[in-house]
Structure formats: structure tokens, C-alpha cells
Amino acid sequence: MNRTVLVLCVAFVFLGCSENKKESSIAENKNEFRTIEDNSIINLYDAFGDDIDGLTKDFGFSCIIKYKGKTILFDGGTNADIFKNNVNALNIDLSQVDFAIASHSHFDHINGFDYLLKINPDVKIYFPFDLFWGANIPFDISGTDSTIIDSLDKRMQYFGGDFKDYQFNQTGRFWNANLEFIKESTEIEPGIKLITTASPNMGYFNKYPSLDACENCKSHSARFNGLKEISLYLETDEREVLFVGCSHSTVEKIIVETKQHTKNNIDMVYGGYHLLPYDRTELNSLSQRLKKELRVKRIAPAHCTGHLAFKILKDTYKENYVFAGLGEIVKF
């Protein structure tokens, strides 16, 4: 039996589908929500994976995790309708989500939260400490010459001149949602840590230069506006797992920051590695560093990792490469 057929059969058995029907509906009994096993991950939103009837592929990322009885949603995908479709096809009850994590503010990771909040309006969502998405960050509105205010009529002065330590009083992207902005790496519950990093620049699908590539990077507005990210670290009795959304900070930096914070090696890194812009030479070097220098035992790349990186990482990690496509169940 080849691997594709084997994966499909295992998935269908787990989901309660008929074994002799290769492309059956994942959740035939819509009145009964699935029970997700502890220490397991299901990819809810991605552009690759086996062709499983009922699931819609799209470029974006979301996964649901069961850990020590907690149900955790990590990211929400690009399109709320597709996210809704995949969640319903997998027969997952979002009202049981204990908390959600937005790895960063890009649309392909957060738009499904609109559907999450419709089903579970009071759910806690952890978000990066990002001014542009609702965090109340002090902002200097005095300008480049703070003395000029003395020459202005009071009616021309912001807030009549009373604006020391001004902070934006904004609603943010998700109005009235139960958001908590994470500024520094922290443990939110026993064994559950949120790791904060920032990319060298804002970035979308671009390739990030090394920090040594530009002597004047600190003066660039791109550096000033670095994109904030949160990664999720779960500690188990045997293995530590790190979840990354898009690794705009670079997957290496996230791993290093995690190890410095937790003092532990990492068994598996699951999620988007943001390697689409990199060539074969760079990817060969990275794959060796992940394995030999950073001592990551297993990898489960998804989303923005890219075809070439999938191939090189699989060749490097062999049996320790974990396939994590749409609808796939990964145990840890």
C-alpha cells in the first residue's frame, strides 16, 4: 500500500468514515462533534495535502491543538468562509476552543477568527503587541520640534497641549473581542509558553536579509516597523513542540529565542517556515543548521515553507520529517 492511500485510510478511520470509500465525507454525522485526542494537531487551513472530500485548500494557515485537556486554535487562515467549511467538514466544535493565538497580523493567519468569534464570542485571543492591531503603545505626537507648540494658539495644539505619553485609544481589528496583547515571552499556563520575536522589517512575501547585510538598517523605517510575531511552545513529559505561523522573524531566530527562554531542546517545529524566497544553497545550509546546530529532532513544515524547502528538508530529516498537510493529524 503506498503512503498516500495509507494516510487517507488512517485519517478516515480516525474520523469515523467508511474504510472502503476513499473520498467519503469526513464528518457524515453532522450532529456529533469530534473528540480531539490529547497531544494531537489537525491542520485546518493550508494549500497542500491529500485530496480529502469536504476540505478546501487555500494559501493560509490554521491548526487546532489538544494539549492537557485544553483545545487551542493557532491562527485562523485567509478566508473565513473556507475556514468555516474546513472546520465544519472536520466536525470540530469551535465553542470548545479554550483560547486562540494569532501568530501575527497578516490576513492569511487571522481572517478565520471572524467565524471563531461568531461561534465563541468570549474566547481569549492572544495577539502580538502590535500598535497597528490594537495594542496601546505610547506614541510621540510632539513632532521633531517639541518647542514649536509654544508659538501656537491652544486651539491648534493637539488635545489643547495636554498629550504627554499619549496612547491610541483604539478598538483594533476585532472590536469587543477578548484580546490580550503579548509584549514579552511568557508562560500563560503550566507548560504553555508564548514566544515573542520581531522580523527585521514589516514584510509579506519578501526574503529577509541577514541583520549584517545592512549597516544602516537601524535607521530605516522598515527596521522601525518590524513585524511582531508570537510562537507557541508546549512542554510535555517527553517532547517539546514549537508552533510557528509564518516565521517572518526567521525560523532560526524563533528557535534560538525559544531555547533561550525555555532552556530545553525542541523535538518538533510545526507550521510555516517562510522559505519560499530562498534558493537551494541557502536551504541546504539551513536544513543542516536546524538538524545539527539547533538540534531540532523532527520537523513538520507547512504553509509558506515552499516546495523546494519541503524537498530539501525531507531529504535531510528522512524518517523525522513529519507530513503536516491539510486535514492531517499529527501526534506529539
Give me the CATH fold name.
Metallo-beta-lactamase, Chain A
- The overall pLDDT, averaged over residues, is 85
How many helices does DSSP assign?
8
What class, by secondary structure content? Answer: alpha/beta
What does the main sheet amount to?
Answer: 7 strands, mixed
Low-confidence stretches: 1-30, 210-224
The count of domains is 1
Rg result? 22 Å
Describe what this molecule looks like in 3D.
The structure is a single chain. The protein is built from eight helices and 13 strands. By secondary structure, it is an alpha/beta fold. It has one domain: Ribonuclease Z/Hydroxyacylglutathione hydrolase-like (Metallo-beta-lactamase, Chain A, 4-Layer Sandwich). Strands 6-5-4-3-2-1-13 form a seven-stranded mixed β-sheet. Helix 2 (80-89) crosses helix 4 and helix 7 (280-293) packs parallel to helix 8. The two termini are 25 Å apart. The relative contact order is 0.14.
